[in-house]
């Protein structure tokens, strides 16, 4: 019994029908995950616990058994059983399962990748690096997943091609080296189980999202692609020769359950992936501490084994503190635009032409004017949102309808208009979305417009005696300026758990991204959409995340000895802070200058990341020290790390001293007078051995930043140098701005091509 003395009990809510509730008719059963630490774990290990009785075995159902990133199992039991186990001294934590949501080409060139030279050439296009994609599965027949001219599957690969509905071993190849699906959590949580009429109980993708993200990261290139004529060009992923392992953890119409995601982490590490791409996050607005977050726990287990984990920052921007996936061992990716757009103008009867966007590919209006109506004129919010069964056909038949964005899918609003007899739709942003626009493959003539344009159109429709309008669809335009721009929906900082760690880490292309698509669903994803398309155009941090996953594959191929932290550092310290107009990055939602709370370190620039000069590396011990510094005790940390740990007993470490590529100096709000804080970083030279770097400081008003020493001298014998950054704030004159922070930077340069920049965030915020 000695080897089973520490348990983690994670409570996952699954309201079930019989037979699981038959033993407690008054209670709905729930799914628990039991954590076991130390020793080997027999496949039937639950019977080894002294609290695990035969009665418990008979009335519970084992769902998953975890061996690698997490030791334990998940099972369905009643709340009474949960209460009994919660009080057991061996149980460290209990929490509910969360249903996660997905965070829903030209972009490789926009990142600085060029054929036959640079990172693509130096990394052999990511050949032999294996990317594990946690998503909705994959549609293997797409040309993006051809294995033509690829070498043999890497010998280290230990994964499988799991059979299921319309999926078997022949659907894997030298490109898709493995595929699994994880459905036990979903089957337990959904009454009646997964709907097999709209889903495949297999790795096959019924949603499209997983096919899109996989091909964004690693789709093959050298063939023409478009979506109904939009975004025509040569299709290619970021790492075209990288291998793909698909882990289906998300299910159409029912999301993604933590118990299944944790099982996928467990399998992927054993299978031998090099990179994990997970465009998934919390959809309930709750930020859980790391020890209660299975994505954080699973990703730590992966990162501790040398696997790079890329995650999406979430689509709840532009609200502050909306960024998700906050663990410092995960690379968190926000979204920016690229220099391609799909303009569609709303033309009003008074002669005004207002700019919008659309991916509508049906019969155009050809300049014909139609009456235009705003259903929200009478103050009916549900009608203004064009929700199901809210439009009066007598008011909208034969007209273009103005619909407010929000509360239902954008494309679904157009379908509501069509059912009510409308001929077109103008989708208007609200104030929260600002001027941020994304194109949609609407089923009726429709375009999206920003908040200001929407207000003008509504005013015209409400005041003109005979308002009329039309929509002009203008196709694809390349070379848009400015670009990139921080997408309005992209999750924003500060970090809601530990503000000392800046999140997001960086941004990458995530707006109007063309990539492969499932044949099981139309481009809108609506059940009523009969269209089929090989490619689709989507927007979201879900699309930005696989760009960084593919980038990590390229860097891993070029530098196989680099750790996940070193790869992230190379990306973060070489980012771009200017757009293609050579001006500072702007925030799409406001049109004003963006800040590190919006873009992290900046926009991914792979032309420079290949050779960053210096990197900020982080070890597993460093992460443990960080967890100690934020007040976690050894048993709590063991929930994350699986192994026993010790925290310093003499002097408590500072979370700001984690060797992160960005720097945050946090000062209490209660103190008055000048305040100072010293933060330490250690740089590792990965460039030429004999080199000297000098510091360049950018200090915001009211803040003094100094660096000691101001020079870092490296040699063949000395590859690591530490330095101290002292930040001094005068509260009387510092200007923290709307975000509650001021921003500067520390940049190291060697007089040649290496410029290693770290943003510095200065804020007055009491520790959480």
TrEMBL record:
The keyword Lipid biosynthesis does not apply. One of its GO terms (molecular function) is serine-type endopeptidase activity. PANTHER family: PROPROTEIN CONVERTASE SUBTILISIN/KEXIN. Residues 371-457 form the PA domain. The active site is at 135 (charge relay system), 209 (charge relay system), 542 (charge relay system). It is found in: Secreted. Residues 40-103 form the Inhibitor I9 domain. It comes from the Eukaryota. This is Subtilisin-like protease SBT1.6. GO terms for biological process: proteolysis; system development. PROSITE patterns: SUBTILASE, SUBTILASE_SER. Residues 657-762 form the Subtilisin-like protease fibronectin type-III domain. One of its GO terms (cellular component) is extracellular region.
């Amino acid at each position: 019994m000695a080897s089973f003395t520490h348990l983690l009990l994670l409570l996952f809510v699954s309201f079930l029908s019989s037979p699981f509730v038959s033993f407690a008719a008054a209670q709905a059963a729930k799914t628990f995950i039991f954590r076991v630490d130390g020793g080997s774990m027999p496949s039937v290990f639950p019977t080894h616990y002294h609290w695990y009785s035969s009665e418990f075995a008979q009335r519970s159902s084992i769902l998953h058994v975890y061996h690698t990133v997490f030791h334990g199992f998940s099972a369905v039991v009643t709340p009474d059983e949960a209460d009994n186990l919660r009080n057991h001294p061996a149980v460290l934590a209990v929490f509910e399962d969360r249903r996660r949501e997905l965070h829903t080409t030209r972009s490789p060139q926009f990142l600085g990748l060029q054929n036959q030279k640079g990172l693509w050439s130096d990394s052999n296009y990511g050949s032999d690096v294996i990317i594990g994609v946690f998503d909705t599965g994959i549609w293997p027949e797409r040309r993006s997943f051809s294995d033509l001219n690829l070498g043999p599957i890497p010998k280290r690969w230990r994964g499988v091609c799991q059979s299921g509905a319309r999926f078997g071993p022949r659907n894997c190849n030298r490109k898709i080296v493995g595929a699994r699906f994880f459905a036990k959590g979903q089957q337990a949580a959904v009454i009646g189980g997964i709907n097999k009429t709209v889903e495949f109980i297999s790795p096959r993708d019924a949603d499209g999202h997983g096919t899109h993200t996989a091909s964004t990261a690693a789709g093959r290139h050298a063939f023409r692609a478009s979506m109904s004529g939009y975004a025509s060009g040569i299709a290619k992923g970021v790492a075209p020769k990288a291998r793909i392992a698909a882990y289906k953890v998300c299910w159409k119409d029912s999301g993604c359950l933590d118990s299944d995601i944790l099982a996928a982490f467990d399998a992927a590490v054993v299978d031998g992936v090099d990179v994990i791409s997970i465009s998934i996050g919390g959809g309930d607005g709750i930020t859980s501490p790391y020890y209660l977050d299975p994505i954080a726990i699973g990703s730590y287990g992966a990162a501790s084994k040398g696997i790079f984990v890329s995650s999406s920052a979430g689509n709840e921007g532009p609200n502050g503190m909306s960024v998700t996936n906050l663990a410092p061992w995960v690379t968190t990716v926000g979204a920016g635009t690229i220099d391609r757009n799909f303009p569609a103008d709303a033309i009003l009867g008074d002669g005004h032409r207002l700019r919008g966007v659309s991916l509508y590919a049906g019969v155009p209006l050809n300049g014909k004017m139609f009456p235009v109506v705003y259903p929200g004129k009478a103050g009916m919010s549900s009608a203004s949102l064009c929700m199901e069964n809210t439009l009066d056909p007598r008011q909208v038949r034969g007209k273009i309808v103005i619909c407010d964005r929000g509360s239902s899918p954008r494309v679904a609003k157009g379908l509501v208009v069509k059912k009510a007899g409308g001929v077109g739709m103008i989708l208007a942003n609200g104030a929260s979305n600002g001027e941020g626009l994304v194109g949609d493959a609407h089923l009726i003539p429709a375009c999206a417009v920003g908040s200001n344009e929407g207000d003008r159109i509504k005013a015209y429709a409400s005041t003109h005696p005979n308002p009329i309008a039309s929509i002009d669809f203008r196709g694809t335009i390349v070379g848009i300026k400015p670009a990139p721009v921080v997408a309005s929906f992209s999750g924003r900082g500060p970090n809601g758990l530990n503000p000392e760690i800046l999140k997001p880490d960086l941004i990458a292309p995530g707006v109007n991204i063309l990539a492969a698509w499932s044949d099981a669903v139309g481009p809108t994803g609506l059940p009523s959409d009969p269209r089929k398309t090989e490619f689709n155009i989507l927007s979201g941090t879900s699309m930005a995340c696989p760009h960084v996953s593919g980038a990590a594959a390229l860097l891993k191929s070029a530098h196989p000895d680099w750790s996940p932290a070193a790869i992230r550092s190379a990306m973060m310290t070489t980012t771009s802070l200017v757009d293609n107009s050579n001006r500072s990055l702007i925030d799409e939602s406001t049109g004003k200058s963006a800040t590190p709370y919006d873009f992290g370190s900046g926009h991914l620039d792979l032309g420079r990341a290949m050779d960053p000069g210096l990197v900020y590396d982080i070890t597993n011990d460093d992460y443990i020290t960080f967890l100690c510094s934020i007040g976690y005790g050894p048993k709590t940390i063991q929930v994350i790390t699986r192994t026993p740990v010790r925290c310093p007993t003499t002097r408590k470490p500072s979370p700001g001293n984690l060797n992160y590529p960005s720097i945050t100096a946090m000062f209490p709000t209660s103190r008055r007078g000048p305040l100072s804080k010293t933060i330490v970083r250690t740089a590792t030279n990965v460039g030429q051995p004999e080199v000297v770097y000098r510091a360049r400081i950018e200090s915001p008003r009211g803040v003094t930043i100094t660096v000691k020493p101001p020079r870092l001298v490296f040699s063949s014998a000395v590859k690591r140098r530490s330095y101290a950054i002292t930040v001094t704030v005068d509260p009387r004159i510092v200007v923290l701005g709307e975000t509650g922070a001021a921003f500067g930077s520390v940049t190291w340069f060697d007089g040649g091509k290496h410029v290693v920049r770290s943003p510095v965030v200065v804020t007055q915020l009491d520790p959480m």
